Amino acid sequence: MPGAWAEVDGQKVTFYGSSLVDNSTAANGKPLDIPGASQPGIVTKAGLVLFGNNGKALLVRNVQFEDGKMIPAAQYYSSGSSAAMELTEEEKTFAEQMRAVWQSILNNVSKIEDSTDFFKSGAASMDVVRLVEEVKLRASSCQLQNEDVYMNTTFQDFIQMCVRKLRGEDEEEELVVDYVEKSINNMTIKMPHQLFINGEFVDAEGGKTYKTINPTDGMAICDVSLAQISDVDKAVAAAKEAFEEGEWGKMNPRDRGRLIYKLADLMEENQEELATIEAIDSGAVYTLALKTHVGMSIQTFRYFAGWCDKIHGSTIPINQARPNRNLTFTKKEPIGVCAIVIPWNYPLMMLAWKTAACLAAGNTVVLKPAQVTPLTALKFAELAAKAGLPKGVVNILPGSGALVGQHLSDHPDVRKLGFTGSTEIGKHIMKSCAVSNVKKVSLELGGKSPLIIFSDCDMDKAIRMGMSSVFFNKGENCIAAGRLFVENSIHDQFVKKVIGEVKKMKIGDPLDRSTDHGPQNHKAHLDKLVEYCQIGIKEGATLVCGGKQVQRPGFFFEPTVFTDVQDHMYIAKEESFGPVMIISKFESGEVDDVLRRANATEYGLASGVFTRDISKALYVSERLNAGTVFVNTYNKTDVASPFGGFKQSGFGKDLGQEALNEYLKTKAVTIEY
């Protein structure tokens, strides 16, 4: 219960942010005598642990003293709140020098007392800058930030803070990471493998783990912690506290942007390692992982870092009831704790597309990566901590969708859930979010994107882009062209040239720079592709090439082309999510009929058209019922352009300014004057 208190060290101390915990939480710490308690409390890295007379323990996150000052309970002994530190002679000299500086800045104050408050005495933001620089002149080893002054406003607190920094007692705890190291791709990669909760890498409850598999050879990369229900609760609690009580929720948006820029810089510094981890964990070809999986992730964080201080509301004229006057304005506010559940095809990029906008808006995140591709998300967590994002802002929970994803959907403290994955799972998530607490939801779901190729197209470009529309990232691409409609007069020529290009594709190790086509992501998906092609053959479609697993270790599947695909067939209607090109003919001049066939699907994620006729291109793009239409190109997404689907491909947007709205709420304020 917030506001409970006790007398500690002769003064009233009030407790905030309390929760029941396991007694093991208090394993390491410093005892604190509390009159009336059954045993002394313990100040730990997590907070102050109190013990009840029934043997249960309580963790207190924050404590407030009689003078109104609130601190993290974990800093009880280091904050100087229970007793001021004894200063050495040298430190006393420094303190008197700083007293003189305060006196020169606060020249309206007759004498600087220990209790003198810097801001209540009239100091402004320029005075903060001067004070920080004055400290540097007198003690170069004491590197202050402006924020340090705002957090220590009385002279005594300011001096105590400076002395702690001079003594090295105020340094951030070093992030402890139990790496799995591998020498591969001409480098040594260092991979975190535990859950990341409240700024720390920790084991899952009960030490539960699972193996993540390298699709290139089918061998285990390492054991990864498998999150349980209690781990989800801990992560959500950490995110909630970071949002409601921590510095993240109080941070200036421009400072928030600075941290996100720093995170992007660290990702760029580590891009080769990230791309290598992505290649061995997801099967992505290394060069593609470097350019797209990682490269676009970096661009996404930089783009949204720039938005942090440009999120604002508006003033609105309303119908005034005379003689009174009114002012109405809106505020854009962060939602709070957001859950993000991402798929396995672009592990890091899907994280970036959602997390960057979420953080830029000021929210905190609990993210569940796909169970089969957790490693770049955990590496991202390490970089986020090193960038200085406060504890609890980012939490990463590898685990099963049925357990972790479901509990995030049901959790009452999660206020928004962003999901990318199948339509079937998206519907289930939407229902759970509604029943639990009417969470805000955004869904990017399945697709069967049509690509219409007219006879007046640039044939070479249509071949090149048509290949990319299907085989990019091994076909594991949400906007992949699920069905190509080729005008009858150029159909045979198109198919012949496509087969020639397919035969040139090199299938192999994704770390080989000359590889065009790597392994499918995991064994279950490979098996589904084999079954998908068998259905196509059984229904009477013509298998021109491919359709089989490659006979080599790993999860490799041949690039596949089907022709003579009729509208009623399974492969004409259902997504393969693999390297399978589905080609159907349409009669010359039948623009409206091919549009009808292209739109005859419950999906509406992306689409494309190839033609030299600009009028035809505009006519077709207006009538294609999809969230994205590509004209004479394909797969050309950009961080500034909104991305999302229609119909059962979901709703809500990733990327662009519109993505911010998914993680903001609008408050209207009306004032009568």
From TrEMBL:
Its EC number is 1.5.1.6. Residues 89-166 form the Carrier domain. It catalyses: (6R)-10-formyltetrahydrofolate + NADP(+) + H2O = (6S)-5,6,7,8-tetrahydrofolate + CO2 + NADPH + H(+). GO terms for molecular function: formyltetrahydrofolate dehydrogenase activity; oxidoreductase activity, acting on the aldehyde or oxo group of donors, NAD or NADP as acceptor. InterPro entries: ACP-like_sf, Ald_DH/histidinol_DH, Ald_DH_C, Ald_DH_CS_CYS, Ald_DH_CS_GLU, Ald_DH_N, Aldehyde_DH_dom, Formyl_trans_C. Keywords: NADP, One-carbon metabolism, Oxidoreductase, Phosphopantetheine, Phosphoprotein. GO terms for biological process: 10-formyltetrahydrofolate catabolic process; one-carbon metabolic process. Coiled coil: none annotated. The active site is at residue 444. It comes from the Eukaryota. Pfam families: Aldedh, Formyl_trans_C. PANTHER family: ALDEHYDE DEHYDROGENASE-RELATED. In the C-terminal section; belongs to the aldehyde dehydrogenase family. ALDH1L subfamily. In the N-terminal section; belongs to the GART family. This is formyltetrahydrofolate dehydrogenase. It comes from Parambassis ranga.
